[in-house]
Amino acid sequence: MQQELYIRILKYCLILLITAIFFFPLYWTLTMVFKSYHEWSTAHGAAIHWWPTHFNFDNITYLFQRQTQHSPLAATATRPLINSIIVSFTGTALAVVLGVLAAYGVSRYKVKKEFPIMLLTLRMFPPVAVLIPLMIMWAFLRFTDTWYGLTLVYGLVTLPFAVWLMLTFFDEIPNELTEAAIVDGCTNWQAFQKVILPLAKGGIASTALFCFILNWSDFAVALSLTTRNMKTVPVYLNMLQTAFEGEQYGPKAALGIIAVIVPVVFGIAIQKYLVRGLTFGAIKK
Amino acid sequence: MADITLDNLVKKFGRQTAVDHLNLSIKDKEFVAILGPSGCGKTTIMNMISGLLNPDSGQVRFDGKVMNKVPPGKRGVGFVFQNYAIFTYMSVYDNIAFGLKVNKIPPSTIDKEVKAVAELLQVDHLLEMNAGKLSVNDMQKVALGRSMVTKPQIFLLDEPLSNLDAALRSKMRAELKKIQQELGQTTIYVTHDQVEAMSLSGKIAVMNFAVLQQYDTPHNIYNHPVNMFVANFIGSPTINFVEATFQSGELILDDFQGFHFPLSSATANQIQTKLKSDKVVIGIRPEHVKVTNGKNGGNSDIKAEIVNYELLGARTVLYMHPSMNTENIIKSTMPSDFKAKNGNFASLTFEEQHLYVFDKESTELVWRTEATWHQSA
């Protein structure tokens, strides 16, 4: 009995420790947002401040104030935020629409068994590998620094994932549902739209969230394909430094937290479908 | 009016032949069962009739009209799938109304039709319920209702009762038969359950390995199977097979130490004319094997040892080894007052009029008494 208790205590201590390690960066970022300059910078000595002593919003306002004495930034964070939202959502929409249609086709019609694996191998190499040729192509097409240029890349880069994920969902939906709808007078497209799509909602939601997170956190593609107007949040985040003050850790933390909010809100918005979507494959009838 | 003609239908999947030169003609209002073991091409036939699959060659005709190019939705068939294919995220009402809505029927008519069908199937109290929450029994009814509501001329049922438990199955069997008689559609019913096929249908098509074996009334299928496969597939417990040699008007039962079974001269002549070699297999239904307890009991020299028995209430099924031969098992159904004991010896008797004689090589039926033959209508 005694021994069991010890093991239990030890187990919970371990869980607590691991949780603390995982949550520490989030804790540090979050508290840093509300710290004043001399608390997050090392300019006034290297004292560690675990909690903001002078709770303030300076770091946030810094991001959105343009050309003041305290803000030597050329551009505020507003534009990159809007850019990120536009390209991430449109890129996701592109991947999901094409992915859903392609996956349904692969799932229902005779396609080589190896196809899904072949598809995934497309994503085995890092996007950076094709970045230079892509840059040249995009420059040639005048797609650099445009929202559609990024949308196109994001859509295509996440497409294999979207197809792969949707395939597992479609494979779970019995073909008889389509056949029943067709016998009742539906065309193939109507059967897909009226019978299959409503059933695949959960899958579409989780696929969309997954693609969105990939697009939202992309740095390399956006860095090389944008110059001025279409900078996204990760690229902008990297620029938050000045020659005079060095790395702007405080504002960076603030923007980091803001960047976390968007996917979280998106996730909560589709949560209703998400839970079912993620457990979809787990239950065998 | 809808009679169905299948003319030389062939369907292959890769190298596998699913349906091999199938000819079948089904009359209007007829209830036909397609019976066969799993994977013998039953569902493929249904899919070709409904239009979900195109045959590689051959024709599907309804009332003489070739349907090969007509899309499934325009063929006027209702299809009930084995797993029901219920649209689980819709209400029962929307499920039943689906076919009507797709065909753009005015809402007032839809409402009337859905309610009429729901009432017939006794699911009218469930109309507002989510179809995913239904019991299996009700799901089955909704699936039936969904294909009935469009008033198809042809009804295709693909193992509709296989997911139900035994008690429910016999109840639904009766209901199905009643509904079919009321609505009078031509119905094709796929099953691997011989009881369903025998009890429901006017005619049975027995399939094996993509080939139609026999297409006849349940009575003739049981009493005049064309070959050993059909004889073995229909009947429970299954028919007994005993290897024998046909010699000078007698059957020498190889499985029973060469016991001589005398035949009437008329029978012997009939067998003689049809037989190619002298090796035959005789079939005897378990209900025709009479058993007398004791080594010296009865007036027969065919001896067997009881190795197992099952008390089924109304009757007792005996499993016996012919003496000195443990490879073959002879089954017999006896009245329930029969005193069976494992290890006991018994004497077996059976009569000529109950024999099925098959050619051993071709497995085809060579002789069966004409008395049991019913000319099908």
Strand content of chain A: under 5%
- What's the end-to-end separation of chain B, in Å? 18 Å
Query: What's the average pLDDT of chain B?
Result: 85
Distance between the termini of chain A: 41 Å
| CATH fold call of the largest domain in chain A | MetI-like fold
CATH topology (level 3) name of the largest domain in chain B: Rossmann fold
Assembly state here?
heterodimer
Low-confidence stretches of chain B: none
Word description of this protein:
The complex is a heterodimer of chains A (285) and B (377). Chain A has 285 residues and is mainly α. Chain A folds into two domains: 2-64, no CATH class; 78-282, Orthogonal Bundle (MetI-like fold). Chain A has helices spanning 2-33, 37-40, 58-64, 78-108, 115-121, 131-140, 147-172, 175-183, 188-216, 220-225, 233-239, 249-269, 271-279, and strands at residues 241-242, 246-247. A two-stranded antiparallel ribbon of chain A has the order 1-2. In chain A, a hairpin with a 3-residue loop joins strand 1 (241-242) and strand 2 (246-247). The longest helix of chain A is centred in the first third of the chain and has 32 residues, at 2-33. Chain B is an alpha+beta fold and 377 residues long. Chain B has two domains: 4-229, P-loop containing nucleotide triphosphate hydrolases (Rossmann fold); 239-372, Nucleic acid-binding proteins (OB fold (Dihydrolipoamide Acetyltransferase, E2P), Beta Barrel). Chain B contains nine helices and 21 strands. In chain B, helix 2 packs across helix 3 (107-120) and helix 2 (92-102) runs parallel beside helix 4 (136-148). The chains are: A mainly alpha (285), B alpha+beta (377).
